[in-house]
Amino acid sequence: MIRRFAFLLCIASCGGPEQPAVVPYELKPVVAPQIATLGAALEAELAREAKPDASKEPALPLSEVSDLLGAVAGSEGKLRLAAIDDLVRLGDRAVPALREELVATDDDPSQRAVAVEVLGVLATPAAVDVLLERLERARREVDPEPWMRAHCAWRLPLAKADWARDRLLLDLKYEVDYETVIWIARTLEATGSLAGVVGLDVIARGDQPERAAEAVGWLQTFAEKRGLADGAALIAAYERGDFVASDDGPPLSTRAKLATWKRIAGLAEWQLRGVDDSRFVLLQSGATAVEALALALHDDNRYIRVHSAQVLERMGRRASAATDALIAALDERELAPQAARSLARVGDVRARAALARALDAARPFELRVATARALAELGADGVEATLQPLLAPETPLDLRIAAASALLSTRGFADAAAELAILGDALRADGADTQAVEAALERWLARAGESAAEFSKRWAETATDPKRAAARGALVRELAQRAK
Amino acid sequence: MKPIRIVGASVLAALGAWLLLAVFRPPPPPAPPRAFTSSRECESCHQTVFAEWQTSWHAQAWIDPEVRTLSNDFANTDCIDCHAPRPVFETGVGKRVLPRETRRAEGVDCIACHLLPDDRIAGTIDAPAAACRPVATRDLANVELCAPCHNQHNTVDQWRASKYATPGPGYQDCLACHMPYRGGDPSKGRDHTMHGGHDMELVRRAVVLRATRVDGKATVEVENVGAGHNYPTDERSRASDLFWRPKGEETWRHLYRFRNPYRFEVDLPNTELASGATLKQTIDDPAAAGDIEVALFYKLSPYWKDPPHPDPEHEAFLVHRAELAP
């Protein structure tokens, strides 16, 4: 007896295959050190490039610069180019006067247009800053001359000042003048970024026929440059993430990288409006932003972590390079639910196994629900066995619905009776998130295609029903009965 | 021994034993930890509070059709953080809340304000044996508990700048107006109906309307006498409009609008009326020389169906009305 016990003890102490060590998710300052490092690098670059005694040169008065602007406006051909060259040679000394000129509405408009052109050719940080400031004016006050914003977008020397893209992207969010939006999109595209195509698509479907035609034309041009048939194919490819690697164009300058990290720091702002601005800009940014956001998932500021994951979620497939970082984030309590959502949108099926592990009963409820919902979106093929027990009636409502939605993604139109019964009841239940249920059912119907045509028609008919959720619940219940 | 003495001694002994037990009995064992998955779990013990909350706008935060329209069905995701927040105590009092994944249909619910990071419940007493293991938490009455959401539109900052934020007899915090004691009796606990801008009685108490003649000219004043923040506050979608009309006429004439515009409305100033401030408007119109009516209306959404011809009687709530003789 004792010998048998000792033997069993020995077996038990040997254990099975070695378990992987649990490595705690690392939280540390990420964004602040990046900003400090890039800031120092930028200062060093500026010191290297600085001309001796440049700061001692006095700024030129508007009267002096104005004469030269008049000379450019009144001349043509080589004479004009020479006059522009004269202005450009004045360098940053002319910038304050050119800035004044941009709002001098009593002057000849052609002179203001020249001032914009000169600032664009000058392309120094100070000159570019004035152009961006003018572009941003409509966010602060009524702009009497929207055409000036279009000119600034046109002349913005993005190829020489890649850091300006960050502010230009925010302009996309607020700009209401269609001509300016078109120019922003064109300027961005000229440096490899397709961030403006969504804006062009809005204009193409908008209520200004001339601008709509222009937008359609530019979408077509951009598509053809990339070997695609038309604007629709271009937008689909952009949203799929086909161009994410080239979105940044040539390697970014230190100043541009710094701008990206400062935007990420903006995710920790108190006002959600500011957070949304940062999310928007980062969402439209390229591969550099994806890489930085993946690193920011380890920042010790919870807002930076969670909102970085939100940006990756909205990027969808364009953020596929962040998949591994998001899978790792499933181990960070505060970040994990958002990481699950982001993985669903990024759409890499490698995430399925990790998501299934996060369904474990020992994990926080919030995470388990988010994970089941993510599997509903990503498709739960191969992890059905983990989800099945969650359909039990004693499972809390949110989790049971999410599990049924996930399992539905693996079912055909005729073999989903159990899941449909749960979801049908959920649509009629108090306290259920009917929006998520409807989304899951719509994905399932879309996949079922022709076989669900009749049901899909009835489903669509309930869209405007004042008691839509209840009506759809009854429909789904009926389908569940039939499937039985 | 007489039987009466025996009975008396027995009763005394029993009482003594009961007293000893009551004093020295070990406290009931603490309730086991539980993870709350829905505010409905609170209902069975806290029926009054739950019923009040269910009628509140906090409970409608996710499902209200108007919110859904204004947030584009929450496609404007920056709205989710406050319309379905994770518990305030999880992120920290005074810190911004984060959006949650679960029970979104419950909006701003019991869990959002009362759940502590260790799964106990912030309450007014310590009762470890109760099912939800409440812990007396003074921060429940702290304005910073409301600030994570309500200061997104600067309401708490407006209060900080008001006389009500000054410590002393005049001090009144958010709870004083928006979560008063039931029937004014502290022993009955606080009303969880969370009265606010949808409660016209509260709105009426916030401002007074005065109409007088100054040098023969009709002069109208609106004073923010009761709100510890701007009138109106919080939402850009809220507006309050001052109208007048010659007595007997049907059509109201617009005089002034109190509103903080949306950020894209760069041509409009913020005209909210700060706490304690007075707006004075003179009606510079010959038609105002005779008998006139003046009225202050309140709107939950800023736009009129037919902007050149606003119809406040059908599209807004009447706050105050005054008449002015020649």
Describe this structure in words.
The complex is a heterodimer of chains A (484) and B (326). In chain A, 65% of the residues lie in helices and 0% in strands. Chain A contains 27 helices and no strands. Chain A is elongated. Chain A has 484 residues and is an all-alpha fold. Among the domains of chain A are: 59-157; 388-484, no CATH class. Residues 9-17 of chain A have low confidence and may be disordered. The longest helix of chain A is centred in the first third of the chain and has 19 residues, at 31-49. By secondary structure, chain B is an alpha+beta fold. Chain B has two domains: 40-188, no CATH class; 200-324, Immunoglobulin-like. Chain B is built from twelve helices and nine strands. Chain B has helices spanning 3-24, 40-43, 47-54, 65-70, 80-83, 88-91, 110-114, 143-150, 155-160, 174-178, 200-206, 312-315; strands at residues 121-123, 134-136, 207-214, 217-224, 239-246, 253-258, 278-282, 292-299, 317-324. In chain B, the strands form three sheets. A four-stranded antiparallel sheet of chain B has the order 6-5-8-9. A three-stranded antiparallel sheet of chain B has the order 3-4-7. Chain B has a two-stranded parallel sheet with strand order 1-2. In chain B, a hairpin with a 2-residue loop joins strand 3 (207-214) and strand 4 (217-224). The N and C termini of chain B lie far apart (99 Å). The model of chain B has no long low-confidence stretch (mean pLDDT 92). The A-B interface holds A 138-142, 174, 176, 270-273, 275-276, 279, 302-303, 306, 310, 334, 337, 341, 364-367, 369-370, 373, 396-399, 431-435 and B 35, 37-38, 40, 73-74, 76-78, 81-82, 86, 90-91, 96, 98, 100-106, 151-152, 263-264, 266-267.
